[in-house]
């Protein structure tokens, strides 16, 4: 007589997909987030006729950084903290999914909205006839993909200092205000004193802006024009800084991320 076997549980992929689906439904119920997801790229597109011929490329770069900071990073900090304080992360962590899988599945809906915003903006610029082909395609893609990954690990690291979703308005200021202001997005770093410009190039958002400028316009952080193989040579420093931030924030998360509420 054979012993009946227990039915196999859902696969790991299905469990991750189920968590992604649950997070997506929660996001869709957040009307503020949905309105911002659609309104922000449309608002930026509305400014295209007011700027010059290079406005399309400039607005794409601006939209990528603004979306990464204000949608991906800030939204994920508040999401992770809210899930932690509601004991959701603790319950998920004791299940069959690993810690990284729980964090990634929670981030997927926000990452999809981020990608959708960038695509919507690019499409709007193309419809207006202001699209300019980038100098290089690989570097902007690297900026978006690695920048999104960095925002995720920075968000998880920021939860270490964030007690409540409301306090994220304060704890995220170093990235939202400080790193963004000194990223080279709003003014060239050459306008800063040399020592401050050097420090600014080591901040987390600056390499994202540098890679975007190199790929979209063929310009380095100091405004020099480059082309061909020189593009990838100029990209080595921002890539190294970006990877260093990824590894550092990832290591901090792996070592100290809190799954239980901070009480």
Characterise this structure:
- With 263 residues, the protein is an all-alpha fold.
- It has one domain (14-256).
- It is built from eleven helices and no strands.
- It has helices at residues 12-29, 31-46, 55-85, 88-93, 99-127, 138-158, 168-171, 173-181, 194-200, 206-217, 229-256.
- Helix 2 runs parallel beside helix 5 (99-127).
- The longest helix is centred in the N-terminal third of the chain and has 31 residues, at 55-85.
- It is globular.
- The termini are far apart.
- The model is unreliable at 4-8 (pLDDT under 50).
Short characterization:
The chain contains eleven helices and no strands. It is an all-alpha fold.
Topology, element by element:
Layout: H1 12-29, H2 31-46, H3 55-85, H4 88-93, H5 99-127, H6 138-158, H7 168-171, H8 173-181, H9 194-200, H10 206-217, H11 229-256
Helix pairs in contact: 1-5, 2-3, 2-5, 3-5, 3-6, 3-10, 6-10, 6-11, 10-11
